[in-house]
Every structure is written in structure tokens, then in C-alpha cells.
Amino acid sequence: MKRVDLILSERELDAVLKAVDAAGAPGYSVIKHVTGKGPHGWVSDAMDFSGLGANAHVIVFCEAGILPKLREGIQPLLDYYGGVAYVADAEPL
Amino acid sequence: MKRVDLILSERELDAVLKAVDAAGAPGYSVIKHVTGKGPHGWVSDAMDFSGLGANAHVIVFCEAGILPKLREGIQPLLDYYGGVAYVADAEPL
Amino acid sequence: MKRVDLILSERELDAVLKAVDAAGAPGYSVIKHVTGKGPHGWVSDAMDFSGLGANAHVIVFCEAGILPKLREGIQPLLDYYGGVAYVADAEPL
Amino acid sequence: MDSSLILQNLLSPPVLFFFLGVIAVLVGSDLEIPSPLPKLFSLYLLLAIGFKGGLELQHSGLGGQVLPTIGAAVAMSLVVPLYSFLVLKTRFDGFNAAAIAATYGSISAVTFITAESFLETQKLPFDGFMVAALALMESPAIIVGLLLVTLAAPQKRPGAAGMRWGAVLREACLNSSVFLLVGSLVIGLLVAAYSPAGIVKMEPFSDKLFYGALSFFLLDMGIVAAQRIRDLRQAGAFLIAFSVLMPLFNALVGVLLARGLGLGPGNALLFVVLCASASYIAVPAAMRMTVPEANPSLYISSALGVTFPFNIIVGIPLYMVLVNAVLPAAP
Amino acid sequence: MDSSLILQNLLSPPVLFFFLGVIAVLVGSDLEIPSPLPKLFSLYLLLAIGFKGGLELQHSGLGGQVLPTIGAAVAMSLVVPLYSFLVLKTRFDGFNAAAIAATYGSISAVTFITAESFLETQKLPFDGFMVAALALMESPAIIVGLLLVTLAAPQKRPGAAGMRWGAVLREACLNSSVFLLVGSLVIGLLVAAYSPAGIVKMEPFSDKLFYGALSFFLLDMGIVAAQRIRDLRQAGAFLIAFSVLMPLFNALVGVLLARGLGLGPGNALLFVVLCASASYIAVPAAMRMTVPEANPSLYISSALGVTFPFNIIVGIPLYMVLVNAVLPAAP
Amino acid sequence: MDSSLILQNLLSPPVLFFFLGVIAVLVGSDLEIPSPLPKLFSLYLLLAIGFKGGLELQHSGLGGQVLPTIGAAVAMSLVVPLYSFLVLKTRFDGFNAAAIAATYGSISAVTFITAESFLETQKLPFDGFMVAALALMESPAIIVGLLLVTLAAPQKRPGAAGMRWGAVLREACLNSSVFLLVGSLVIGLLVAAYSPAGIVKMEPFSDKLFYGALSFFLLDMGIVAAQRIRDLRQAGAFLIAFSVLMPLFNALVGVLLARGLGLGPGNALLFVVLCASASYIAVPAAMRMTVPEANPSLYISSALGVTFPFNIIVGIPLYMVLVNAVLPAAP
Ligand SMILES: Nc1ncnc2c1ncn2[C@@H]1O[C@H](COP(=O)(O)O)[C@@H](O)[C@H]1O
Ligand SMILES: Nc1ncnc2c1ncn2[C@@H]1O[C@H](COP(=O)(O)O)[C@@H](O)[C@H]1O
Ligand SMILES: Nc1ncnc2c1ncn2[C@@H]1O[C@H](COP(=O)(O)O)[C@@H](O)[C@H]1O
Ligand code: NA
Ligand code: NA
Ligand code: NA
Question: Separation of A35 CA from ligand 4 center, angstroms?
């Protein structure tokens, strides 16, 4: 099994989750209010009141087989809006 | 060393943490207000006001040796109430 | 690529992030309001109103090459104030 | 008079803000009241309603209609789940039938509060002991629900290790909303009796702010209820019909009881609302923990997505009409 | 009179709490108002200002100056981005120029609210329809901004798959602040017309608490604005100058329009403030989603780090002086 | 009179809600006030108490008893940690002794506020300058605590790279609670002097709401304090005894000083409460950062789990009795 970690702006979360669903992942978990720093600079939650939001962290445990479809759906979003996506191995407890 | 990720309903958090402790883990970390989707459907935090709560994400760094006891304590809870548990390798920095 | 997970008190977060930056990491993500248990006992968010805060979880995706510098900057902080740091493998999606 | 009552209710701030929340979801606005702000308002409303109820209960005492009314309310919270279960069992398994039944035996504090606000604009008096009835109807319904589960499906539950009854009873009687409501009621009682200076000093917080805070909270309830509409497809026509017809039936039973108890129109309306409303705060949380086999989207959607809006929008004025029709005319 | 007006404004609680927030950041205090508490106050302020505006609009009706004023306000929100864009295009690429331009065409509800509080302490009347103008200036500016992007840089956008116009329009017209403001305005209108009992009951929440809640929120705005000061170095002298001079220019245009519309001094000040203020709530959120190529720290820092403090601290009393100078003396 | 004062205090809404929170933990209810809602109330209480203190300070000026009283308060915050340290050092290492000592030299704003509410129900006047004393007692105690650490255990600290004194002083003097309290006090002063219109407009927020918000916050404090009870076993009998006896001793010193200063009974009670209370807001946060070697559960549990409840429940009326006994009878 694989573990995929996606970190991206809360504004694009819906689109990314749609792509995760479409790729056939059996489930996912979402942590909001994540702050951070990346190539596009610093993201804080100080502007939260404005609806601008901070980042979200999405965790997906899935079979290696769906990774290509996941990549296909998510990579364009990350390229355009920013964010990172990493894969690692994980086994059911 | 191993890294264990547990994602489950906040309502069952106390029971799961008790099992983690009982298994002899040296520590754990808990993130609440996690939303997500799994075999039992979508979990949001919109009902938070009712005490229904969302999901919690528990991270445990521990020796491989305690995994069997961890599995034994946690698997029945996940089977009955829902939730996922995955293991991966991790080394101290 | 490597994935580094740091869990430590919110009070020391600024110093740790400075060390992460100084080590040349390309970015990082921070989750606050993490509770947990470790060698120093239980950390809850019940004292949040007092500015005491809970723990923070920092995730860094970076090249293996910067690990030594990261270790050098962070280990003294964790030794003095408490907290854990683990490394695992991760590949871009 | 009927349609004017409905219109007056529809055009009151709390109900209009409820609509605004519903519309936000329907048109796809990103309006949301992020967690834990709704919790702030729900804690506040429970504290304030309990405190005010306690103040009034101290004045009215426990004589007269008080104990019979509370007894009748508790009886309803025990009986409604039983006949609801029989109806629901025709379509659902024992777990879901019991969970939904418990939901309808219990009450919705927000519906009750909205009914109080409605009575205030109608200048109809009501008594503090009705809050005691409210507080005492939640736990029995939860316990009946769990008894129904053990009766209907005892053998199929490998995970429920001996049905930890201690935990179950604690959840039923000490869950945060029951606890805060009862606790604030007792505090109100004590303050009214022993430190009247505290009454005036609490008033701007617990009384003056109340209506606005209710309106704000109903904005969120509108959003949350409308988000449940999607789940209703899964629930099916039978459950949707149940969620409207069962409250109407319970209201009918309630109004007859209110007449028998000799309640005035204000208390009678509140009594009917207690019978007709369904819990979406304490009961779902208790059922999620104690009957994980039941599908939460069924019992939450029916109580929050159908019964609650129905009661808030047309139920309350409708029950008022009913009360006026059934109760003997005032002398 | 001039300097006394500025001093009076400087020493009012809301502005002083704004300063306190700024100082907290400058001296390195760890004072912060954690998320989502600022959201609670911003939701509250929008709800309350909309509701009060609706109540007043019901009394004034849509006759007289109402429609021309609203029309002029909307026209300003369409025109300001156009000439702002031309100025900004001399230094920034099309994406950044368009995003900043939209920001200045739109409005800052908090600046407007602070101006209302200023008028109240000056005992100058103003009308509810100005809130309608406020509500209607946000969306057009966003749409003009996006048109400018497509005109200025249509070919360079591989990622903007066909510029999902549906999503863009929804974001422009139904984003949470516009939606809540317009919704509360309509609710205020309906309540004033049909259930006047609700007005008095809402008052402690929507009216009495308003000034204190504004002060508390401005404490946070001071913190957030001061945190932006660091970004200003990145923004550069040109953008800083723009963030002060463009509001002044828009204020001049605004005061002439106000004279032409025959507005009284209270409404005229609010009109000028609408023209002179820049959005840091709805527009950044919309731009982040629809023009990710633009750098948020540019448009947020200029609107929130420069223009907003400028307007709050010296702008409002300055515009009052301007209004008094340009408007014909009252008969 | 004694027991009636204690009863009146016990049965006031703030203390009853504190009890309710304690009971919630003891019986195992899941009642909780989720983060960051308690922060909202603590920020609000500090802002409101500072603002009101500033308004009153402007009227009383800095003459008469003001400066001597403030001086005596600051002196107590310097001296109390010293003798506390000597007592604590008999059982604890230097780090823990210093951290606990600093805690008792500093003050508890919530205890002070509860004492003010108690005085109001007793119709006893008190002055705004006591809030200035409150604000100025926090930082010295922190600094003395850190000096004690460096004196008692300088060589054992490999991690404390040169005791970053800059950071330590900033934490001591600019931590959010001291900063907000002092800032709001100054704002109150300025508003009272220069924009009296602002006083009336702030009142519903900063004054009327105060008592209810205090009650709500004490509900949470009851929960948090009761959760600390478990830690007390770890703390041991010596520390528990210290947490009751040291406040009593400090109260004795305080009442004699109050007599010497010629304070009236209201101010005297507040002075005694400042001496007798222990910090669980600013000091723990500062100690966690600057003396990580000390065990937080020791200094937090003693201040929050023992001294705070003791003061709130029996301390305040007891100190009132003491004040009445020691102060010369009013002419
Ligand atoms: N190397 C990294 N490690 C961890 N998180 C990262 C990294 N790079 C970016 N992020 C996260 O992804 C968010 C969006 O990144 P970006 O828009 O590409 O700057 C950042 O705000 C961080 O929260
Ligand atoms: N494949 C998955 N990847 C990540 N999180 C998951 C996955 N499956 C389930 N979860 C999380 O576990 C929670 C409970 O799952 P369940 O009750 O089994 O549907 C979900 O709400 C998700 O937050
Ligand atoms: N073995 C572990 N697994 C996961 N998290 C841990 C572990 N040990 C410590 N932590 C986290 O690190 C925090 C600080 O640890 P410490 O101060 O060393 O007790 C704890 O409160 C936990 O959140
Ligand atoms: Na019912
Ligand atoms: Na503008
Ligand atoms: Na003290």
C-alpha cells in the first residue's frame, strides 16, 4: 500500500478531493488550518477571517495502482496553484 | 523504528489512546478536527457543536516490537467503530 | 527525497522553523493544536487561553543532503525543550 | 389567524436567518461559520435558557401543574420511542430503527428556544418549569433507544463487549448538553433564591443578547440542515414522510395531554413542541458511540434536515393554531 | 476644525485598539487573536451592518437619491479598476495589475463601519441605502478585474482551463461577505416591514454591542496590518505611493459625485469612503482562486498594510474636511 | 457576618458556574469549551478590565494613595517570590522552586475580577488604579523568578545558551496578557480624557456584558482546574499545603500594608487579593519558555488547581472579613 501526502491551499481543496475521488482512492483524510512555506512564500492563517484560508493537508492510503490516475488529476492543479505531493510506503497495521 | 498512523472518530479517541498506552508506546501525538471519507461515508466537522465531533489523527513513533500488542488493542475498535491504521518505517533524525 | 516529522511545543516553534530555514529546506508545513504524550508527560490544549499552547507538528520534504544541517540546528532545541524528530523516505508523486 | 401566525413566524429574524443559511448552501455560496464558533452559540443558548428557566422555576415553585407536567413530558420521552420503533421497524433494521426512535423521543432545545421567542413576540406567558421538562426528556429517550437495541438485536453484536452499561448511562445522563442545561437551571434556582443581585448583573448576557445569538446560531443551523438535504435521497421517501408525520402525530398527542394537564396556551405550545421535536444534539452523539451499527446520516438527516426546519418554519405556528383550537377558551 | 477632527478620530476606541494591535507587532508582543475568533467578529459586523442598513432602508424607501447614489457607487466600482489598471500596468504584469486594480475598485466594509461610527460620534445622520451601495460595489470590481486579466494575458494561461466563468461569477457575486451583507440587508428590510417586534429584540445584539465588537476586531486588524509591513519592502515604493495616492484621488472623484448627487454630509462621507477604500476581504479570496498568477502579498499588503490604516487613521477625518469644503453649506 | 459573606460569594453566578465546571469533570461529563473559545473570554476580560480601569484612573488621577499603593504592590511582587523561594527550596530543586515562587509573586487577573464583582454585589466602591497595580505586578515576579534560577542553578544549564536575556525580558514585560491589560488601560485613560462619546458606546460591550462573560469563563476555569486535581498527587502534600498557606500569609501581609496605606475597604480587598493570588496565565507561559527544566504540572497545578479555587470560593470573602477586622472602622 501507499501513503500519499498532499499539501495545498484550502481554496483548491474541493478540486483536489474531487480528483482523489475520481482516481478511485478508497478514502482520504483532511487537516485544515495548516500553515507553511514553499516556493510561493509564506502562508499564515492570519487572513482566515477573509475566506482566504490557509493550507490543507490531505492524506490518502491507497493501492500503488491508482497512483498514475491520482498524479494525472492532481499534478495540473498543483502546477497551477502551488502545493506539494509526496508518496511513501505504508502497510496496514 | 516504526511510525503508526491511526485515523478514527474523535468519539473513540480515549479508548484508542488507552490501547496505545497499554501497548507500551513511548508517546503519541493527536490531531483533532480531521475530516475525511472512508467506507462509512463522509465525516465533516459541521456537527461539531453537537459533541459528535470529527476524526482524530494519532501518530505513534515506536519500536517494531510493540506493533503486535498495538494491533491487538486497536484492531477490534477499528473493526467495530471504523477508522484506519497504517505502519511505515521511520528513523530518528 | 526525505520526509522529516518534528513534534514539539508551540512555544519553541519559531526557533525550530528558523533552524529549518537555515538548514536550507525548500519549504515546510505546520500543524498547531497538536496534543500528545511523551517522556515529559501529557500536553493538552486546555491551557491554550494562557498562551501556553499545545504542540506543533512540522513536516519538511527535503533532499537527504540537508539532513545533517537540520539535525545540527534542531537536536539541541529538542534535547533542551523536549519533542521528537523522525525521518522517512518519500518520493514526489 | 392561522396564515398570519405562520407569516409572522416566517418573517421573524431567527427564522429569516435560518433561511439565509439554507439559501447559502442552495446557491453555492462559501458562507460558513467555522468550528468551534457554532459550539460557542450552542453552549451559550443552553446556559442562558437553563439559567432563565431556573430563575422562573424559583418563583413558580414545584406545586400546581409543575410535577404533573414534567411527569407527562418524561412519559412522552419514554413512549414516543416505543411506537416510533414499531413504525420504523417495518423498513429499517433494529439498530437504525432504535436510533431514529430515540431521536424522536428526545427533544430539540433550539426548537424549544425558537418557540419561546415566538411566544414572546405573541406576548403569551410561559413558565420556567417547562425548561425542566426540556432538560428531563433527553436522557430517558436515549436509554429507551439502547434498550430497544439490546432487545431487537442482542446476538448480532460482537464488538459491543457486554454493552458497557456504565458508559452508556453516563452518556445518556451526563452528556454535555443535558449537563449544562440542568446545571444552569440549578444555578438559576440558587441565584434567584439567595443572591438576587446576580440576576440583574447576568441579564445583559443571559437575557438581552439571547435573541440575536439565537438568530446567529440559526444561520449556522440553516447551513448545516441544508447540507443534509443531499443525504435525504439516501434516506428515502419513507423516512422523509416519517420525519413530518411523526412530529404531527406527537403534536396531536401533546396537545391533548396539555389540555388534560390544564396548561395555559404558552406552556401548552412548549409542551407540544417538546413532543414534536427530535434531537440532533445529544442523541446523535450518544448513538454514534453506543450504536455504531446505525447509520448516522439516517437519524441526523431526518431530525436536522427535515423535522427541525419543518418545526421552525411551519410547525411552531401550526401547533399554536392547534393549541388555540383544542384548549378551552380562556375564561 | 481639521486637526481637531483628526484628533477626535485618533482617540476613539476603535482607532486606539487598532494602534494597540500595530504596536503589539512592532514591539514583539505575542498578543494574537487566534483563528477563527476574527472570523466571528467579521461575520458579526457584516450581519449587523447589513441588518441595520435594511431596517433603515425600509424607512427611506428606494425613491429620491437612493437609486442614483447606488448607481453612481456601482459605476465607481467599474471605473476605478480601469484607470487603476492603466496606472499599475506601467510597473506590474497584467495579472498583478488586474488583481490590485480590482482591489481598489472594491470596498472595505470595516473602513465603512468605522466611518459610520465616526459619523455617530459627530452626530451626523446617514442613510441605510449606503449599506446597499456598499454591498453592490464588491462584485462588479471583481468581474472587471477578471475581464482585465483575460484581456491583458489571455494566451499565457495554460492552467486556467477555459476560465471557468461560472465559478468566477459565483465567487464574485456569492462570496460569503457579499452574501451575508446582502442577506442581512434583505432580512432587515423584511423585519422592519413585517415583524417590528423583532427589531427591539435584536437591538442589544446587532446594535448595542456593535461599537465594542468593532474595537475588538480592529485590535486584530492592527495586528494583521502590521504583520504586512514586512511585505511592503517587496512591494516597493511605487505600490506604497499608489496605495495612498489612489484613495486620495478616488476620494476627490467621490466628493464631486456626492455633491452632484446632492447627498448630505453623512452620506457624502460614506460615499467618499466607499470610493477611497480597497478590499482585503472578498477580493483577495476571489483573486487567489481566479488569478493565482498574481502575487497575493502585493494586493493584500497594499490594501491592508497601507490603504486601510491610512483610511482609518487620517483618511476618514480628512474626507470629512473635504466633504465640508466641497458640499454646499446646509441651508 | 463571616459565614453569610462566604455563602453570598458561594451562591453568586460566577462561583456557581466555576463549581459546575468542577462537577462536570468529577462526574465524568464530556462538557468542554473547546479551544480557542476560552481565549476569546480571557482576551475580552483583560481588555474590559483594563479599559474600565483606565476610565476610572483618569478620574482619580495619580495623586493621593495611587502611587504609594502601586509601589507597594510592585514591592510585594518582588518580595513574595523571594521568601516563597526559601520555603520551596527546602523540598524542590532550584528550577522548580524558582518557577513556583514567581507564580505566587505574580497575580491572577481572574481572581481580581471575581473580587471586583464581589465588591459590586456588596456595594463597596473601589478605584481604577488598582487595575494599574494588577498590571504592574506580573512582570517583576517573572524577572525575580529568572534571577533566582540563574543564581540557584547557573552551572547546570547547557541548553540555555547564554540565557537570552532579551527574549526573557520581552516575555516578562510584553507577554500578551500584560500587554493587553496595560494597553487597554492606556486606551481607557485616553478615551476618558479626550473622547467621552466613546465611553457610552463601549459600555454595552465592556461593561454590561462583563459579569456574564466572567461566569462563562469561570465555567471553563472550573473544568481546567478540576482536570489538574489528578496532577496534585504528583505534587504532594507539601505543595498543596503551600498553595493554601502561602496565599493566607500573603493576605496577612497585604492587609497590614493596606492599613498602612490608608486604603478603603474596597481597595484594601483588591490589594489583599493581588498579594494572595498566584498567576496561571502569564507566568506559566513565561516559565515554560525560560525555565524548561521546571515541571509545569507543579506550578500550574498549585496555582490553578489549589490556590485559584481556594481564593475564588473561600478566599475572597475571608479576606473581606480580614479587611473589616484590621482596617480602622470608617468614621
Ligand atoms: N518542502 C516542503 N515541505 C513541506 N511542506 C511544503 C514544502 N513545500 C511547500 N510546502 C507546503 O505547501 C504549501 C504550498 O506551497 P507553494 O504554494 O508551492 O509555495 C506551502 O505553504 C507549504 O505548506
Ligand atoms: N484510505 C484512506 N486514506 C486516508 N484516510 C482514510 C482512508 N479511509 C478512511 N480514512 C479516514 O478514516 C475515517 C474513518 O473511516 P471509516 O469510518 O472506516 O469510513 C475517515 O473519515 C477518514 O478520515
Ligand atoms: N513516541 C512518540 N510518538 C509520537 N509523538 C511523540 C512521541 N514522543 C513524544 N511525542 C510528541 O512530542 C511531544 C513532546 O514530547 P516530550 O516533551 O519529549 O515529552 C509530546 O507531547 C508528543 O506530542
Ligand atoms: Na420529541
Ligand atoms: Na474603492
Ligand atoms: Na500574588
Answer: 44
